[in-house]
Write a sequence for this structure.
């Protein structure tokens, strides 16, 4: 979602007074507007006002006019699309809290898919991820409240709350025969967006969990720090998106010319092209991008743009398909509209909306079998003419190592810290998509090497 400043809009729909204001506004319409269109618009406004008056007069409970208008606006926006909404003071305040990067909640990104509340992705190292929530889970109930007919904003407002308080999600998961109940304890959500590790000594692994204000800067810093890299794994799995400028900035680190993404809307001012720049761009290092069904919005822009520019191989599963642009428009008195104003288009002109990005190589999640059984392998010691002295030396070293049981505690701590900077063999083989990505990247690294001329 893009946060954008707009002129304050004053909503003046109050009962019959609203009709008078609307007629006054209509009278100032452009001369080239067809008469029938002006008449139809006026009739629609009058219809709304007439129904509003009936509700105020006849409804079983007495209603405050302001509250009634707010309800009408919420219903109006939610029926436009899944991402537009009217935010009252409370909702607008909660949005500002969320975008500040620290709030009390579950650490879960949700969206509407086929009219149902669906988990886009749990954020890394948050209560939702630790409790076992997965991308693609359908949320049936939040505590005792059914989500049918609930807006995204309403769901988020319920899930967010005081740290150390519990919430129960009832979910439907693909492959499970019955709904699952997952209890989650809320906590302060502090989002770290970029994690870096190494695969062996030559591959840089970059895990980007969301697109906050520092993503492009942090990735650029990681790339500069690792001058020995021969390849990059960019992991965008379960990344629900974020700020457009960060998606553009990240892509710009690897593409030196052409369009990264464009947005097209109804108004000419919303038609914008974001282009790459040659300055400080790495166009040589082979890249593999990992995506899945939890990769949405900004993640799809990055993966799709790198794919269209043939700058990276995309590995994993088809992405979420969220390719629309929302702006937040204050409407006075602490309220705002979140309105879809455009759609994203990738460099080739294809849309992301409802289609997503299809990987170049589809790999489903899972584990890769490791064969640790080496008992039937013929070894040097079994050959008749093995190097006995070398073997004795190796055996002696092994015996000395076995005597060292616990070792120095400080040394152990140091080793533990070092282990966090690399991806272990167990981690790689436990993740089929990652393992495939590394294998593909190894092949790209080999093919990218300059050919050596034979000496005559």
């Amino acid at each position: 979602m893009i946060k954008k400043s707009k002129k304050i809009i004053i909503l003046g729909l109050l009962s019959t007074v609203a009709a008078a204001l609307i007629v006054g506004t209509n009278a100032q319409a452009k001369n080239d507007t067809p008469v029938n269109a002006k008449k139809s618009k006026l009739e629609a406004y009058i219809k709304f006002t007439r129904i509003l008056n009936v509700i105020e007069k006849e409804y079983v409970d007495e209603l405050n006019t302001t509250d009634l208008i707010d309800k009408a606006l919420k219903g109006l926006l939610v029926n436009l699309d899944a991402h537009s909404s009217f935010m009252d003071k409370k909702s607008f305040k909660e949005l500002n809290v969320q975008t500040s990067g620290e709030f009390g909640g579950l650490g879960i990104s949700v969206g509407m898919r086929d009219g149902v509340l669906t988990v886009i992705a749990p954020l890394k190292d948050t209560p939702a991820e630790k409790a076992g929530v997965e991308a693609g889970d359908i949320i049936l109930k939040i505590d005792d409240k059914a989500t049918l007919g609930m807006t995204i904003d309403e769901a988020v407002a319920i899930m967010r709350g005081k740290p150390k308080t519990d919430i129960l999600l009832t979910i439907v998961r693909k492959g499970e025969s019955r709904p699952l109940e997952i209890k989650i304890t809320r906590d302060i959500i502090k989002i770290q967006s970029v994690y870096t590790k190494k695969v062996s000594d030559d591959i840089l692994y970059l895990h980007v969990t969301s697109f906050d204000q520092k993503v492009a800067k942090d990735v650029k810093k990681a790339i500069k720090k690792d001058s020995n890299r021969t390849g990059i794994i960019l992991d965008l799995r379960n990344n629900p998106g974020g700020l457009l400028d960060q998606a553009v900035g990240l892509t710009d680190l690897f593409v030196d010319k052409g369009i990264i993404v464009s947005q097209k809307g109804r108004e000419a001012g919303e038609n914008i092209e974001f282009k790459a720049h040659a300055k400080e761009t790495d166009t040589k290092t082979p890249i593999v991008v990992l995506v899945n069904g939890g990769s949405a919005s900004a993640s799809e822009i990055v993966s799709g743009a790198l794919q269209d520019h043939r700058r990276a191989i995309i590995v994993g599963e088809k992405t979420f398909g969220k390719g629309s642009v929302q702006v937040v428009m204050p409407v006075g008195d602490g309220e705002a509209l979140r309105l879809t104003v455009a759609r994203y288009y990738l460099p080739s002109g294809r849309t992301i909306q409802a289609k997503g990005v299809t990987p170049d190589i589809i790999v489903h999640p899972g584990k890769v079998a490791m064969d640790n059984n080496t008992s039937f392998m013929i070894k040097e010691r079994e050959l008749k003419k093995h190097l006995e002295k070398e073997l004795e030396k190796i055996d002696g070293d092994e015996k000395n190592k076995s005597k060292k049981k616990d070792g120095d505690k400080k040394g152990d701590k140091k080793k533990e810290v070092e282990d966090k900077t690399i991806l272990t063999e167990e981690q790689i083989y436990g993740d089929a998509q990652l393992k495939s990505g590394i294998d593909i990247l190894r092949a790209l690294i080999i093919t990218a090497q300059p050919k050596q001329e034979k000496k005559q």
Observations:
- The first strand starts at residue 85 and ends at 87.
- Residues 1-27+34-63 form one domain.
- Residues 1-32, 374-386, 413-418 have pLDDT under 50 and may be disordered.
- The radius of gyration is 28 Å.
